[in-house]
Amino acid sequence: MIDRPLTHLRHVDLAVPDYDRQLDFYTGVWGLTTVAEDSGIAFLAAEGSPEQYVIRLRRAGDKRLDLVSYGAASPADVDALAERLIADGVRPISRPGTLDTPGGGYGFRFFDVDGRTIEVSADVAARRHRRIEERESIPVRLSHVVLNSPDLNRTRAWYERHLGFRLSDTLGHPRMGEVMHFMRISSQHHSMAIARGPHTSLHHVSFEMRGLDEYMRGSGRVIRAGFRKIWGPGRHLAGDNTFTYFLDPHGNTVEYTTELEELDEDTWHPHVYDFSEPEVTDQWGTANAMNEFVAKESFNDPDHGCFVAPPV
After folding, report:
1. How far apart are the C-alpha atoms of 177 and 33, rounded to whole Å?
2. Is residue 128 part of a domain?
3. Which of 118, 196, 288, 298 sees the fewest Cβ atoms within 10 Å?
4. CDD domains from the xrefs (predicted)?
């Protein structure tokens, strides 16, 4: 059995009806680079990341989360994970094999407990990337993804059992109970979080910036371009990272962040933080107040792609 089959988050793939508008936003405003485009599919890289791409956009009639992709250490680990998942009754989409996407590699796809498509791959060629310079306010890399689930603890248990995620911290509320679990696959505080929502959907995708100045400059650029800021700037307690959240043209929440906490896994014990306390949601006190209207924005639209594999 592979206790820790995953190494890192690779990319998040989105299907969008207004493809051209989304592509303009992610490249012209958000700061990603188009590395390949063909027949309504664009692969977008972060300049500081060795990943071939961190966002894939696909032209489609309906908005959906196409898939979330993670890395594995070797093809042997990919094969072992596929065998274990099938034996445990996880629904496969494809068998391990060669990937026909930028960088190639060896991987497979399957559905998670909520019906999202997950991809795991190894041996993807590293992209030639570069150091992000001072005051260059574009993403260095993909930081993390947060997923909405109507059954928070069922989803958490599935990811712990099948993919080796570990709990870092939990957000709770005196009346609402547990509302978010921060999950890790490395010493990074979280590569994924699971939020309690009314339906299965994408909560947000987060991008790491070079530093505080670049984070603020990037946030200012998005505001000046006329895109809606939901929440921020501020600094969370869980993860100790900065945050500013925006809506992309199709209503997906995207975040600029920096300084996400690195844990000492030998000594770390998960906390349960009361997010009704203002200093939990924002240590600085600079963000607009977290309330039901802010939270509702990140519920997103119900994902109609559940248990339906993307066509590519």
Report:
1. 41
2. no
3. 288
4. BphC5-RrK37_N_like
In the chain, how many domains are there?
2
Residues 197 and 56 in one domain: no
208-244: pLDDT as tens digits: 999 999 999 999 999 999 999 999 999 999 999 999 9
Residue 112 counted as domain residue: yes
Q: Is residue 3 part of a domain?
A: no
Is 129 within the bounds of a domain?
no
Residue 158 shares a structural domain with residue 275 = yes
Q: Strand 192-196's sheet: what is its strand order?
A: 229-235, 242-247, 253-257, 201-208, 141-149, 192-196, 177-184, 166-173, 271-274
Residue 115 and residue 162 share a domain? no
Q: Are residues 103 and 161 in the same domain?
A: no
- pLDDT tens digits along 33-66: 999 999 899 999 999 999 999 999 999 999 999 9
**Spatial separation of the C-alpha atoms in residues 188 and 184, rounded to whole Å:** 6
Rounded distance, CA 89 to CA 207, Å?
Answer: 33
248 contacts 24 by C-beta, under 8 angstroms: no
Q: Which two tokens stand for residue 172?
A: 């709770």
Same domain, 109 and 241: no
Q: Which residues form the domain of 87? A: 8-122
| Cα gap 162→172, rounded to integer Å | 25
Residue 29 sits in a domain whose CATH number is 3.10.180.10
- Give the dihedral sign, CA 33/36/42/44: negative
2 in Cβ contact with 78 (< 8 Å): no
152-191, pLDDT tens digit by residue?
Answer: 999 999 999 999 999 999 999 998 899 999 999 999 999 9
Give Cβ neighbours of residue 83 (< 8 Å, ≥ 6 apart): none
Please state, in angstroms and rounded to a whole number, the distance separating the CA atoms of residues 310 and 154. Answer: 24
Q: Which neighbouring-strand residues pair with 30? A: none
Both 148 and 118 in one domain: the answer is: no
